[in-house]
Design brief:
The chain has 12 helices and 12 strands. The protein is an alpha/beta fold and about 325 residues long. It folds into 2 domains: about 120 residues, NAD(P)-binding Rossmann-like Domain (Rossmann fold); about 190 residues, Rossmann fold (3-Layer(aba) Sandwich), CATH 3.40.50.720. The longest helix has 20 residues. It is elongated.
Length: about 325
């Protein structure tokens, strides 16, 4: 009896996002029913796909899917899965899972770091240090001075793994956590004090000191933050995006930040990545930029292995898989 084929296909300019050799070797040793194939580029995908039953990969393009006649399950090592949501894949019987629980806790820590950096005006401290400037008076008298996080209101758009982990940390710090979600009738997550419907976005924006975006990228969320929404934010409120760049109208955000109509922003994701060196966003002193590093951790592939190996065991046993994606809804 021939073994099932498991394809590990990860390609990226940064080695961190490429599955290491040990990942494949450990899977091969632990899961004998599978023949495990590792690719670090997409050059031979079409050659491998006809026999593949399970694929661990960031994407399969429509023209590649036609070769995947035996494919039953795809696992995305990213939390984002919008790249799979084309009609041929959505309408197929292929099961899709993602790595939201791998990245969520790590990204939530990054958001906490951004909140503290903004609250305590750390970016200004760094700029003053580079100028050898003792800026105690400047930091207090110019703009909003350093503030306490305890007692502030955190507004969440997205109550997935990032939002839930962040809500716990924020609640522990004494923050008031409010959120908007598409289905407010669902049970309120722990540590979230109030849930508003999606139509309550503007209300949340007007109440929150820190607004954090981490929803999936769908037609409903693309461009969800533009001029109208930014105008609803507090004059000293901060916007943080760790979801996907297209959630925000970057031109609108640039205008609002340049005019200092909100306190500031922190972005880890952008419409186009890497962010172009000539982007006007770089020159805004009230914008903190991190280069899509929120999910980075030395433990990344151990975390991937824990989730994926458990799902492989479930797959072989015919049990429900973890981190299942609803392809019709896009998350």
């Amino acid at each position: 009896m021939s073994r099932m084929k498991l394809l590990i296909a990860t390609h990226h300019r940064l080695d961190l996002w490429i599955a290491p050799q040990w990942f494949t070797d450990r899977l091969q040793k632990e899961f004998q029913p599978f023949e495990v194939v590792r690719l670090t580029s997409y050059d031979n995908m079409e050659k491998e796909l006809p026999e593949v039953e399970v694929a661990f990969t960031f994407s399969i393009r429509p023209e590649q899917l036609q070769f995947a006649n035996k494919l039953r399950w795809v696992h995305s090592p990213a939390a984002a899965i919008h790249q799979f949501l084309y009609p041929e894949f959505v309408d197929s019987d292929i099961v899709l899972t993602n790595a939201r629980e791998v990245h969520g806790p790590v990204v939530a820590e990054h958001v906490l770091a951004l909140i503290f950096a903004l609250a305590k005006r750390i970016p200004e401290d760094v700029r003053c240090q580079q100028k050898h400037l003792w800026a105690q008076e400047k930091l207090w008298l110019e703009g909003a001075g350093p503030r306490e996080v305890a007692g502030a209101t955190l507004g969440l758009v997205g109550l997935g793994s990032i939002g839930r982990n962040l809500a716990k940390h924020a609640s522990d710090l004494g923050m008031n956590v409010i959120a908007v979600r598409e289905h407010p009738e669902r049970p309120k997550p722990d540590f979230v004090h109030e849930v508003l419907p999606a139509a309550g976005l503007n209300e949340m924006l007007s109440r929150a000191d820190y607004v954090v975006l981490s929803p999936p990228l769908t037609p409903a969320t693309r461009g969800m933050i533009g001029h109208n929404q930014l105008a609803r934010m507090k004059p000293d409120g901060y916007l943080i995006n760790v979801g996907r760049g297209p959630l925000i109208d970057e031109a609108a955000l640039h205008d609002v930040l340049r005019a200092r109509k909100i306190g500031g922003a922190a972005l880890d994701v952008f419409e186009k990545e890497p962010l172009s060196p000539d982007s006007p966003l770089w020159d805004l002193d009230n914008l903190l930029i991190t280069p899509h590093t929120a999910g980075m951790t030395a433990k990344l592939w151990e975390r991937h292995y824990t989730l994926f190996s458990e799902n492989l065991r479930r797959y072989l046993a015919g049990q429900p898989l973890l981190a299942l994606v609803d392809k019709k809804h896009g998350y």
